[in-house]
Design goal:
Layout: E1 4-6, H1 8-17, E2 25-33, E3 36-44, E4 46-49, E5 54-56, H2 58-69, E6 76-84, H3 93-103, E7 110-115, E8 120-127, E9 132-135, E10 141-143
Parallel strand pairs: 1-3, 1-10, 6-7
Antiparallel strand pairs: 2-3, 2-6, 4-5, 7-8, 8-9
Length: about 140
């Protein structure tokens, strides 16, 4: 498993975005550095949402990709985040399907799930041994 480093200010920004009555979704921007995934930024991408589903805007994704290619965003897409509203920290079947789309670019892509009601979060990553997603143990997550 690869350790993840995330700045507290990024975590707090995501928390403030998801404190709404419907699910939120966004991208995690960063880099692989010294065998750690370092999250440098988060970009909200919700285009439509309900209490239990959030859809990422394809226009925002295209804009982010263009910004990365043209140097306006420093780093690459290293994962995504979304909220659950009081249902816990887990990956639903829809979440797993969404994550599998990002795995085509890298096996080191992470998924962050935040339960805004319980004020908890977890990070999930692909595990080659099991062939599926596993939640990173707390000792693999550094908040700086």
């Amino acid at each position: 498993m690869i350790p993840v480093v995330i700045a507290n200010e990024i975590l707090e920004r995501i928390r403030s975005e998801i404190d709404v009555p419907h699910e939120q979704i966004g991208l995690l921007i960063g880099e692989l550095s010294d065998n750690h995934l370092v999250v440098n930024d988060a970009i909200s991408g919700t285009s439509s949402a309900t209490r239990s589903l959030s859809i990422f805007s394809s226009e925002i994704l295209a804009e982010v990709a263009d910004d990365i290619l043209n140097g306006r965003i420093n780093g690459r897409i290293i994962g995504w985040y979304h909220s659950h509203l009081g249902s816990g920290v887990f990956m639903s079947s829809i979440d797993i399907e969404t994550h599998s789309r990002l795995l085509q670019f890298s096996n080191d892509v992470i998924a962050m799930v935040m339960d805004s009601v319980a004020n908890q979060f977890g990070i999930f990553i692909y595990d080659a041994q099991s062939g599926g997603l596993v939640q990173l143990p707390e000792e693999y997550i550094s908040i700086v």
